[in-house]
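BUG-408 | component: ligand-complex export | severity: low

The export step for 2-acetamido-2-deoxy-beta-D-glucopyranose jobs runs without errors, but we want the raw record kept on the ticket for reference. Input record follows.
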Amino acid sequence: MTRRSCAIYATGIVCTHLLIVGIALVSYNQGTELTLTEASRVFESWKNPPPPVYMEFYFFNVTNPDEFLAGGKAVVSQIGPYTYREYRPRKIVVQGDPMVDNLTTVNIPAVMVLSKLNSYSFFLRTFVSMYMNSLKMGIFMTRTVQEVLWGFKDPLLTKLHSIKPEVDEHFGLMWKKNGTHEGEFVFLTGEQNYMDYGRIDTWNGLSQMSWWSSNQSNMINGTDGSVFHPLLSRKELLYIFAADFCRSIHLGYVEDVEVKGIPAYRFAPPYDVLQSSTENPTNAGFCVPAGDCLGTGVLKVSVCRGGAPIVMSFPHFYQADKKYINAVKGLNPNKDEHETYLDLNPTTGVPIRSCKRAQLNIILNKVQGFPKTKHLNEIIFPIMYVNEMATIDDSSAAQMRSFLGIWF
Ligand SMILES: *[C@@H]1O[C@H](CO)[C@@H](O)[C@H](O)[C@H]1NC(C)=O
Ligand SMILES: *[C@@H]1O[C@H](CO)[C@@H](O)[C@H](O)[C@H]1NC(C)=O
Ligand SMILES: *[C@@H]1O[C@H](CO)[C@@H](O)[C@H](O)[C@H]1NC(C)=O
Ligand SMILES: *[C@@H]1O[C@H](CO)[C@@H](O)[C@H](O)[C@H]1NC(C)=O
Ligand SMILES: *[C@@H]1O[C@H](CO)[C@@H](O)[C@H](O)[C@H]1NC(C)=O
């Protein structure tokens, strides 16, 4: 079974509702020849229409960029949500208008270029520094939300493009990501063992990654988060491959919940997932190069972002070291708004509700030859976070309830 994943990181319900009946048939026909593959094919039509998936983008608007560059503490204020449905840049519910709202944030293309320049000659650095000054371009930029999200033509990248044509002239956090973009997944069908149902066999042709520094960290574990094996236990850890984080993560049971009359177990990533390697040595493999480790609650993903100094975390550095939260004024991590969780029906393994939250940050540091960066001292600067929510639609919920009522 090959299909494309549906969301920003290991998304929820989008591709899964066909399974309710698929699994029903499997449990009914245990021991006979009917397999999930065949059952799924019969119910292919369940795929349309998908349940609603909303993506809310929140940005950290920097209110004192000049003070920060002069050595002060940065102050951010959260703006948003800018809400989109699925991936299409089609806004539906919006507080504020992404087309006109101005956002001051890190000039990500410039910082990406600068971080590369550290390994180049002083001559080239000086040239770039002068060029940036001539364009009045600094470490921060003010753009509309629309531009930052869906792309704009960046003057520095345009200049690089004229020298190296493979460099894209455009920059945007979701640039060219209006479709599916997580790569090609091949999943196991669970024909031999239902516990393998939906497990990722390969991702972009790979059965494991190679960028992390231990074999354990490189493993592609579990599903893409949209399907799980039936008959879930409260004691098990569920693994999902989180493409945003470029790694597998695990979720543990939190509590029993009920969504639209359907019983569910809530699973969420425990604290140890992003724990620092000093506290949790099994995470040492996520330090690249080996030994170059950050603290708890943040994950450097340069290895899979073309070397850019990008760091992923939960929103507002939820569950992260105090030092990251306190480095910037205006952050207020809390469980309700910032935790990622999945509510799964334990009988079928089907996600009933999902809430996935991830924050994008960038490392700001001194660059030799750039006076503007002289007061920077390795700070993990928050840019934005995504809150991706999906809940089973009413008609699927009704079918699920009647299915659970009939058979159990
Ligand atoms: C972001 O902050 C700037 C000032 O720093 C302000 O002019 C702008 O209106 C803010 N944007 C939003 C959407 O509040
Ligand atoms: C954003 O900035 C532009 C140009 O500086 C200005 O024309 C526009 O009115 C600003 N938008 C808001 C909502 O303040
Ligand atoms: C993404 O947007 C581009 C241009 O806006 C369009 O050509 C392309 O078809 C879109 N892709 C998807 C999958 O919607
Ligand atoms: C990782 O796995 C490869 C083979 O799959 C093996 O050669 C290598 O020694 C392993 N590395 C570590 C650190 O265990
Ligand atoms: C993958 O799963 C194995 C156990 O099956 C575990 O030891 C390993 O830490 C997991 N790796 C990741 C990155 O989750």
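Assignee comment: Attached the raw record above. The chain has one domain: 2-407.
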